[in-house]
Specification:
The structure holds 2 protein chains of 2 kinds. By secondary structure, chain A is an alpha+beta fold. Helix content of chain A is 46%, strand content 27%. In chain A, strands 1-2-3-5-4 form a 5-stranded antiparallel sheet, with helices on one face. In chain A, helix 1 packs antiparallel against helix 2. The chains are: A alpha+beta, B alpha/beta.
Chain lengths: 160, 134
Amino acid sequence: MEFNGQIDYSTHERLVDSVKDLFQTHLLPIPLKNKAIHVVIECLENMYKHSENIENQIINDSFSVSLKPDTIFLSFSNPVTKKRMLFLKEKFENIENLSVPEIKAKYNEQLRSQINFSKNGAGLGILRIGLLSNNKIKYNFEPISENSYYFRLFITIDAV
Amino acid sequence: MEAYRFNKTKTTPHISFDPATGIFEIKGESRPENVRTFFEPILLWIEDFFNHVKTNGINNINPIILTIQLGYFNSSSAKFIFDYILKMKHIKELGLSVTIIWVHDEGDDDMKLAGMDLSEMIEINFEFQEVRGK
């Protein structure tokens, strides 16, 4: 399944429905399906909640899902400003060398804390993606211009 | 005290907190477009209920059975669910019987574990129920 275009709230809703239908059709194991849908929700929300106007650039967001019997591959791409790139880079770097129990400890710590629901949300999303994917996350930022980048995120979800 | 009710939508759960029956329920998907707008009134209602129990005592209030059956939920919702359960623990500490039932799909160990983690972090026992998933 592939999508190219602008991801906003209503597109996000349609895509979540399409992913649910896709998984239903392929009779995937429920735990695998549930994990992947949670990751899709989290990532698509990040895309539409943090979409920024990139000056003079018409570049689509994109999202794809591919399946093997016990594995789901997800990819998400969207243009981001330099400020957002630095924010995301820091968040992903913070978890990339952590084990799943260490990510879980950080997630739980964040749940316990007082959260200011600013534009950046509860700060739980990337930790949760790391947990659900057993931290099988790859990402890169390709420069578009001096102040904008194309962000690509690849996540593998296993049945185990 | 008046019950709090919210009918579920595609992205928000059914909420029913009814002190008259003691049946409290959170059921469905939880990924509202604006998390704070959806959840804060509920948190305020629970705060009011806590104050009601504190002021009036537990004698004329039914034991609470809170059933949490979440489908898909975003991480911001998880924070509010944590805060609700914490507040229910505070209500329990006033002497009111509070039972929390965490319902998850059969075989969905991640969802069960999410409940176990909340139970451990908040230090309140959950009962776990499995249902056949779609």
